[in-house]
Amino acid sequence: xxxxxxxxxxxxxxxxxxxxxxxxxxxxxxxxxxxxxxxxxxxxxxxxxxxxxxxxxxxxxxxxxxxxxxxxxxxxxxxxxxxxxxxxxxxxxxxxxxxxxxxxxxxxxxxxxxxxxxxxxxxxxxxxxxxxxxxxxxxxxxxxxxxxxxxxxxxxxxxxxxxxxxxxxxxxxxxxxxxxxxxxxxxxxxxxxxxxxxxxxxxxxxxxxxxxxxxxxxxxxxxxxxxxxxxxxxxxxxxxxxxxxxxxx
Length: 249
Known about the structure:
Blueprint: H1 2-15, H2 23-32, H3 34-37, H4 50-63, H5 72-86, H6 91-114, H7 122-142, H8 146-163, H9 166-186, H10 190-206, H11 212-227, H12 232-248
Helix pairs in contact: 1-4, 2-5, 4-6, 5-6, 6-7, 6-8, 7-8, 7-9, 8-9, 8-10, 9-10, 10-11, 10-12, 11-12
């Protein structure tokens, strides 16, 4: 099968640590791998084996890490090209493929941060990457991968906070707010609620560059959410965790 040949090629590339370092080459490579990335007109109509499908898409997610350039601006072009192709995969594939792009984009934010003395436009470039991350996470929200989106919004907020610039703080606030929105609207199981609010509190406790104007409403929201958990022991655990936010704040 064509997809099997492509899978072998991807596996070989990963095992030999082969890198693709230009967006044109990435475009060509992903076009060749289209039978793994999106549904094809000539593919068989019978349903795919779930295990095979997961293996294929996990490989696609892994190969994203082989698409890298030492030049930061070129790397951003590569990430945009990957996004263009991987979003064609539809809702059933993006849970496997988009997280890799999100983490690669976060790495690129760190690269620009380390180069801030050499690149006077680093802040604008970081803001563009953060908007890029937001678009990927919005796709996951639209596809209703609530837990994955919540966790990645929180991870992205930490990267924003690390940048230490006012625009990034605004985006970090939006990321945490969207994680809260998922928690309040989509997480109904009591165990899942405790895990989610604990993640939100732990993430917020690690932030260092939030102004009081943004910090106060979010910590109050954490406390309110904790006090509304269904089970009293869960309430006690979550409220006690909130104490760390007030101490760190």
